């Protein structure tokens, strides 16, 4: 079967897929882009404590338009809500939490991920608007689990999963799992291991959109 009859996950569906895998009680930082949508998709009744590097712990989903608090935002400058027991603190204290290893997981976007777990997610050229790597560097090296949320390819169809990153690295060897709009892929021993694919997608079609050899733990058309 070809990609023409497959329906890749939307950004919100991808965020919901990731949210289902976050265990009860984990402290989690959500990066800018697709990861921020996870806050709206945490399963009902599951306690996941969300952290934002601008100094919030325990924030919730985006508010209704009539309930927006202009002072309550995440690191991506998006409006959020505050759950019961949530707190605010200094920016320096927030990074002490990150660098001290007190988070269980961070979910970041990516321009490229290499088979050895290298992550590039802040710049694609010297002309990019981002002046520096920013807080993603601290999150990537200070958090024991780094998951990536991204489309499988660029808008031009170039693979984001590659043998070696060509863009400036955010951190080397840190990514443990990748969620794309086509598949769930673990990073193990320098290899990409596919553990889940969207319905009606063949292994050949997924491999054709990937810049490095994939290893499969799922049956064809699972």
UniProtKB/TrEMBL annotation:
GO molecular function: CoA-transferase activity
Record has Transferase as a keyword: yes
InterPro entries attached to this UniProt entry: 3-oxoacid_CoA-transf_B, CoA_trans_fam_I, CoA_transf_AS, NagB/RpiA_transferase-like
SUPFAM superfamilies: NagB/RpiA/CoA transferase-like (SSF100950)
Pfam families hit by this protein: CoA_trans
Keywords: Transferase
Protein family membership: Belongs to the 3-oxoacid CoA-transferase subunit B family.
Protein name: 3-oxoacid CoA-transferase subunit B
């Amino acid at each position: 079967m070809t990609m023409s009859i497959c329906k890749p996950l939307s950004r919100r569906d991808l965020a919901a897929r990731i949210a289902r895998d976050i265990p009860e009680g984990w402290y989690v930082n959500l990066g800018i882009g697709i990861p921020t949508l996870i806050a709206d998709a945490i399963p009902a009744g599951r306690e996941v404590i969300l952290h934002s590097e601008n100094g919030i712990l325990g924030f919730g989903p985006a508010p209704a338009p009539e309930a927006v608090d202009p002072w309550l935002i995440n690191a991506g400058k998006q409006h959020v809500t505050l759950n019961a027991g949530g707190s605010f603190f200094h920016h320096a204290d927030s990074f002490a939490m990150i660098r001290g290893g007190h988070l269980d997981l961070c979910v970041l976007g990516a321009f490229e991920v290499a088979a050895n777990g290298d992550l590039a997610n802040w710049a694609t050229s010297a002309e990019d608007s981002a002046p520096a790597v920013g807080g993603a560097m601290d999150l990537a090296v200070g958090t024991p689990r780094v998951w990536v949320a991204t489309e499988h390819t660029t808008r031009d169809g170039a693979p984001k999963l590659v043998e070696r990153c060509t863009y400036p690295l955010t951190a080397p060897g840190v990514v443990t799992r990748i969620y794309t709009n086509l598949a769930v892929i673990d990073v193990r021993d320098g290899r990409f291991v596919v553990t889940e694919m969207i319905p009606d997608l063949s292994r050949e079609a997924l491999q054709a959109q990937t810049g490095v050899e994939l290893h499969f733990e799922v049956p064809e058309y699972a």
